[in-house]
Amino acid sequence: MYKKKQDEIPTKDDIGIKEAVEKWIETYRLRSKYDESSIVNAWPNIIGKAIANRTQQIYIRDKKLFVKVESAVIKNELAMMRRQIIGRVNEYVGHVVVEEFIIL
């Protein structure tokens, strides 16, 4: 029979990579910046590729999501979906990051 070496036996102090990264993010207080950058990177998945392709700029400041779009039609569409977009963004992250949605 194959016997595991002492290094291969998991102990109760061992944690996964995901847990280690989460602890690191919390320790250095990087959670808000991490969440903001993940929202910006996932914008096409959250809103859809058609609208994301017409988005010129997106950023978050003081719990406000700023989106600059090129088309008046897209601005109108986003304005009508304001609450849904805030809900989708916060759902993606898992907690409230965005409270307002501002279209530029």
Features of the shown structure:
104 residues, alpha+beta, three-stranded mixed β-sheet, elongated
What is the element layout, followed by pairings?
Blueprint: H1 17-27, H2 31-41, H3 43-47, H4 49-53, E1 55-61, E2 64-69, H5 72-80, H6 82-93, E3 100-103
Parallel strand pairs: 2-3
Antiparallel strand pairs: 1-2
Describe this structure in words.
A 3-stranded mixed sheet has the order 1-2-3. The radius of gyration is 20 Å and the shape is elongated. It contains 6 helices and 3 strands. With 104 residues, it is α+β, with helices and mostly antiparallel strands. The protein has helices spanning 17-27, 31-41, 43-47, 49-53, 72-80, 82-93, and strands spanning 55-61, 64-69, 100-103. It holds the Pfam family DciA.
Helix/strand/pairing class, anyone? alpha+beta
Number of strands: 3
Share of helix, binned: 40-55%
Poorly predicted residue ranges: none
State the order of secondary-structure elements, H for helix, E for strand. HHHHEEHHE
Cα distance spanning the termini: 67 Å
Main sheet makeup: 3 strands, mixed
| Tally of individual helices | 6
What best-fitting shape do the alpha-carbon axes yield? elongated
Question: Compute the gyration radius: what is it?
Answer: 20 Å
Identify the strand order in the major beta sheet: 1-2-3
Q: For the residues shown, what is the average pLDDT?
A: 89
What is the strand content?
A: 15-25%
